[in-house]
Design goal:
Structural class: alpha+beta
């Protein structure tokens, strides 16, 4: 199995399920050690199933967390992996880096994506490779898929209004909204050119993310919303199902 630094394609059409998990490992040194242990555990084994499409690991800019993002043809394929393959990998990782705290695992499916339109054709016609992934996790009181979708649609409308129809702000590449299958959470996996670009967008009055508009006020005070957490990550490694070369994966991300 080859490990490559190419970001996964969150809008991959054959991905019927996306699993997103967060680990707390405590320090930057343990972040790197845990990521190396994950890569070693996966690198020495055969790819577990053709129904697993990609697996990526990211380091949180907080210096202590790891984000795991995996794409599957369906949730049933993940259940089979848990039954037959997951424990031996986790045991090896835990032997290498004891004391990992696995905070949460969210089972999701992609609902909608927002590519940047205004500045999407840059640098010789290629989309910029993400320098930062921002993950926004929103929780609601009780399951309600209609509410999940309505919140995402309100965010999309607010972003479009801020950009005067031009899509995401400068530095934003794409936003991919995932709905948890239990109906209680939305996870936005957003690609940015850099961490600073995201910070600048948050601080840009009237043209950034979260400006004081009625639509953004509705996003922030949406009925039933009980949590809203934001974290920034950088890709450590990503690997795909055999038969999908890194060159093809990279080419697929060029518009």
């Amino acid at each position: 199995m080859s490990v490559t630094p190419v970001h996964p394609d969150p809008a991959r059409p054959e991905a019927g399920a996306v699993l997103i998990s967060v680990w707390d490992v405590g320090t930057p040194e343990r972040q790197r050690a845990a990521a190396d242990a994950v890569a070693a555990a996966w690198g020495k084994r055969e790819w577990p199933t053709p129904d697993m499409l990609s697996y990526s690991v990211y380091a949180g800019t907080d210096g202590r967390t790891l984000l795991h993002y995996s794409q599957w043809t369906g949730e049933e394929a993940y259940e089979e992996y848990v039954r037959t393959h997951r424990q031996e990998r986790n045991d090896e990782i835990d032997d290498a880096v004891p004391g990992i705290e696995r905070l949460r695992l969210t089972r999701t499916r992609l609902y909608r994506s927002l590519p940047r339109e205004r500045n999407g054709r840059e640098r010789g016609g290629r989309r910029p490779e993400p320098g930062c992934v921002v993950v926004v996790e929103v929780g609601f009181e009780g399951p309600d898929e209609a509410r999940q979708r309505a919140w995402v649609d309100t965010v999309a409308a607010a972003i479009e209004e801020d950009g005067a129809g031009g899509g995401l702000p400068p530095g934003g590449i794409s936003a991919h909204f995932h709905l948890s299958t239990d109906g209680t959470r939305v996870v936005n996996y957003a690609e940015w050119e850099s961490e600073q670009a995201h910070i600048d967008a948050l601080e840009a009055p009237g043209r950034g993310i979260g400006s004081p508009s009625p639509l953004w006020e509705r996003v922030r005070n949406f009925p039933g919303m009980v949590s809203n957490d934001v974290a920034r990550y950088r890709l450590l490694f990503s690997t795909e199902r055999p038969g999908q070369p890194a060159e093809r994966a990279a080419a697929a991300r060029r518009a």
